[in-house]
Amino acid sequence: MMIRHLQPAEWRSAFPVIAELRDLDEEEFLRRVERQSYSGYQLVGAFEDGKLVGVMGMRPVHTLARGAHLHIDDLIVTESCRHSGTGRALIAFADAEARARKMTALFLDARQEAIPFYERLDFIFHPSPSMKRLLK
């Protein structure tokens, strides 16, 4: 398995994987990735025999409360490749990136059904819950 940053010309190839989790059309996906890339967001791909089987979005963040950390926005492994070590390899890649950047932690938002996976990788619940308010 090879894990590496995706180049902008490869973003479109990540859409079928992302679409397994996110309800976006392809053009909106590309617009959002481009917009987020201006702030350091990167897509990372996991390749098995040359085929893209996993995608992770990540971005550097620095806050007063959490310090410098890497935030994983999305981690998706294709249905047929789940339980193959792909997700674990993507997390290891993010961990190495954060350490290389002298960051103190990895943060992510997890769907309820993914929590056991992250707990097996030593993620713990953060004490402050995320809140949101929709603007009308």
TrEMBL record:
Q: Which domain of life is it from?
A: Bacteria
Protein name per the record: GNAT family N-acetyltransferase
- Per its UniProt record, what Pfam families does this chain match? Acetyltransf_1
Which keywords does UniProt give here? Transferase
Cross-referenced InterPro entries: Acyl_CoA_acyltransferase, GNAT_dom
Select a single GO molecular function from the record's annotations and give it. acyltransferase activity, transferring groups other than amino-acyl groups
PROSITE patterns, per the entry: GNAT
Q: Which SUPFAM superfamilies match?
A: Acyl-CoA N-acyltransferases (Nat)
Annotated ranges, domain N-acetyltransferase: 1-136
